[in-house]
Amino acid sequence: MKKYQGISIGLVVLAAFVAFNSAYIVDETDQVVITQFGEVIREPVTTPGLNFRIPFIQKSNYFPKNLQGWDGDPGQIPTKDKTYIWVDAFARWRIVDPVKYFQTVGNLVSGLSRLDDIIDPAVRNLITSYRLVESVRNSDRPMDTYKLLEQVSLGDMASTGDAVSADMDEDIKKERRSKYRINVGRSKITQKIMAQAQPKVDKFGIELVDIKIKRINYVADVRKAVYGRMVAERSQIAEKFRSEGRGEASNIRGDKEKELQGIESLAYKTAEEIRGRADAEATAIYARAYGVDPEFYSFFKTLDIYKNTLDKETTLVLSTDSEFMRFLKGIK
Amino acid sequence: MNWDWDKLREKQEQYEKKRSTGGGGMPGPPNLDELLKKLKNFRLPGGILVLVVLFFVFFGSSIFFTVDVDEVGVVQRFGRYDRLTQPGLNFKFPASIEKVTKVKIKRVYKEEFGAQSLEDYSKRTFTRASADVDAALMLTGDLNVAIVPWIVQYRIADPYNYLFKVKNVTKILRDLAESSMRTVVGDRSINEVISKREEIAVEARQRLQEELRQADTGIHVVTIEMKKTNVPEPVQHSFNAVNEAIQEKEQLIYKAREDYNKAVPAARGEARRVVKDAEGYALKRVNRARGDVARFSDIYNEYVKAEDVTRRRLYLEAMSEVLPGIEKKFVIDSDQKNLLPFLNMGGGTGSLSALKGQGAEK
To answer: What is the model's pTM?
Structure first.
């Protein structure tokens, strides 16, 4: 009895162990490659749930099915216009062929290092072959910088103000704009990086979902120079505003002067006209009245003048020949 | 382990001693030795009972679970997604058959990017802080450097996608948030980055949401909130200088307008005064003329009637009016030729000064 009992317990335990070993769970995020003595024997299991295998002989190798992240090693890369920048890229990928992946890569960590080897150089290649602005900008949407800078250049040119300067102005505008103009753009560059990297990861059973540039920054030395340029650009703009202010103020002052002189001279003109008319009228009135007998007028007026001009300061010397004194020597 | 048991024993002994000496003391723990003895007495049936109880306690705890109001439970049977459970008490098959993961779908999570959270981070580690300053440092479309810190607030909208479709969702969220923000900022000038934060937030949110949707992350972006955007410290003063220059410009213009307004209306008033003055002159001139003429005409009319006598009368009247006012009067006989040497010209001024030259000649 006791012996049987022992054996039966042993058998139950063994059966439980075997059952336990033959069953395996596939999670929602997993896919499993079943191998027998290290050899892949069936299609990989991708539907989640409970599954069975031959215990001890078969082994299940788990690989993630969900989207994985890859973070690039930010490196110093020169762009086509010889600016040194730090580029930090990241990629998202998934294992689409777990068997290939199992055979060529094995585990997740070495998978990531394979991606390092492939994506990093691809990023490097493409960033190097474009100007910095191509990697920074995504679309060619107009920015209000253009307007500001154009105004600056227009302002400079306007002072010379002749026909030749108009063409030069166009050129400057074009040059300034093309500095920030792009032909490719960030998303196209990342697409190109993808196109370069994808064929190389096919053999690992990996699909790259996308590669994106997370950060682009100037390296420390360049940053200092850029700050210098920013400061210069700003002070240029500040000066422009200041001189605009001065110009506008002068313009207003000119308006003021013009207005004042206009007002003053118009008033003078009107006043003189009025005076002239009045003088003319007065003259006409006098002429009409005095013209009747000019001789009497001069006699009459002269007497008036005598009355007004001869006063006590006057010394009067009268000859007895004069009309007034002729009776003094007696009546002739 | 042994050491613990020894200690326990010691304590027990102490209690027993206290009891025996008659002190109140605390009731001692049940005697373990006795319990063990009891167990030995029951042997098989008792052992099974204990095992069964233990079994139920163990599985029971993994059969019931509660889901809080702000979350849902995602139940997986043998790893396969089975169902969603709502808040409240729920049941499932015991552990290792069914597994539940609770996801807080109503909570709004927050991810910060940039310098604003510097203080929080620097308390923890220094490296994190510097990494985060870099997160806010970005290139604008005109190749300037801006500091753009921001916050993403998000909610888990689809717990299935959130749990199973993407590994490490938070990491992907952060990466995508940085990448979409830089894409938006990269297409704008430094001016726009500083002055049009709302516009940037809206566009970045759209981009980020689209990326997250494509990646099946199950995340809904609630808002993107921009903190104060700025330029790096070394160039800040030059940006301030631009603002000052704008102020200065406006001030200059206002000053000039003020001058204009001060002078021009006053000048208009003055002009009106000048014109009125002239009008006054005109009135005076004409009226005087008319007056003069009227007087003359009246006299002339009478004069014509008796020309000679009126002429004489007018002359003599004038003389009688003028002569009394003149203090120095000399009468010279027309026959006397040399009067002038005797003429005292001492007090002579005014009209006589013309004669002085003649006297000196003599």
So the answer is: 0.67
